[in-house]
Design goal:
This protein is α+β, with helices and mostly antiparallel strands. The longest helix has 19 residues. The protein has eight helices and twelve strands. The termini are far apart. It has two domains: 77 residues, no CATH class; 217 residues, 4-Layer Sandwich (Deoxyribonuclease I, Chain A). The strands form two sheets. Strands 3-4-2-1-12-11 form a six-stranded mixed β-sheet, with no helix packed on it. It has a six-stranded mixed β-sheet with strand order 5-6-7-8-10-9, with no helix packed on it.
């Protein structure tokens, strides 16, 4: 292979390796955290480059590319390893996470989807005043309702069929958007359901605010004596070092394990779609199913979680 063709391969290989390694150090510098959005794509690029380098006789360089690509593949594999079915004596409930997209005007498609999915709890994100009005059509089916609509992307709401649920919309971590912190009791077992939508870490100030958000969110979770469910567009993938710290500190479990990676955003670009909409649960929650909903006019797919609270 001519040297002039090797140079671009070396450049893209080096850039891809950097994007795979950088998220591991994201807690130390905000810009490195941004690489978590492209780390899996970078592994795919290395899988293309490595055979080309091997054909060119560059065995060491090819081996390095294969090694770093393997890092990305090994991270994804646990999501596709079948898990043992989890059982519970409590009934199965369904939670739904929907990022509406404030520019979306397909109100009927959203309400029709919610009715067909028939969840017990729905967390809506990017709730604008217009969306707040449109979603009132669901109030007959969902008597418990609390919302804080906003003109930007930070509005949030909770709808529930659970009669004794209590919810508070509060700010976690100072300058973060509002979050929903709700509680209910099922057959004597306390359940905490949190809906949250922290900002993306675009810049050092936003990155510090996001880190503070998850530190305080972790404190709320660890102070709860019972089952915990966290739903939200967390604006980071599971390769993020902040995400890894959060699940380790709170002992929450990613509900995608055994169900696949399920990337949610952006709907319009399958090739570059990433997993930033999450459903995390504590050890007291038995996951029955985790899947994505249909295209509802948003740039995010909804997340459907079927769970039961363990006795």
């Amino acid at each position: 292979m001519p040297k002039i063709l090797l140079q671009p391969l070396y450049f893209f290989a080096a850039a891809s390796i950097l994007l795979i390694v950088a998220p591991l150090l994201g807690l130390f510098y905000w810009a490195l955290e941004l690489a978590n959005y492209l780390s899996l794509h970078s592994a795919a690029v290395l899988l293309i480059i490595a055979p080309l380098l091997l054909i060119a006789g560059k065995r060491l360089e090819a081996a390095i590319c294969f090694a770093f690509a393997t890092m990305g593949i090994l991270f994804v594999m646990p999501f596709y390893v079948p898990t043992q079915p989890q059982t519970s004596c409590n009934p199965v409930q369904r939670a739904l996470l929907i990022n509406l997209l404030k520019e979306n005007r397909d109100y009927q498609r959203v309400t029709d989807y919610v009715r067909s999915a028939n969840p017990d709890i729905v967390i809506f994100e990017e709730v604008t005043p217009a969306w707040d009005d449109a979603l009132r059509d669901l109030r007959d089916e969902y008597p418990y309702w609390k919302s804080v609509p906003r003109a930007d992307h930070t509005g949030i709401a909770i709808l529930s069929k659970i009669p004794d649920i209590e919810a508070e919309i509060t700010t976690i971590g100072g300058n973060s958007p509002p979050s929903v912190v709700s509680n209910y009791v099922l057959n004597g077992s306390p359940v905490l359901v949190i809906g949250t939508h922290p900002p993306p870490p675009f810049g050092p100030i936003a990155a510090d605010a996001k880190k503070l958000h998850f530190q305080q969110l972790a404190q709320i979770i660890k102070s709860h004596d019972g089952a915990v469910i966290v739903l939200g567009d967390l604006n980071m993938t599971s390769r993020s070092s902040l995400f890894q710290w959060f699940v380790h500190d709170t002992h929450l479990r990613d509900t995608r394990l055994g169900f696949g990676l399920q990337p949610t955003f952006p709907v319009s670009s399958p090739l570059f779609r990433i997993d930033i909409d999450h459903a995390l649960v504590s050890s007291g929650v038995a996951v029955q199913s985790r899947r994505l909903g249909p295209d509802i006019g948003s740039d995010h797919y909804p997340v459907e979680l079927d769970y039961s609270i363990q006795c």
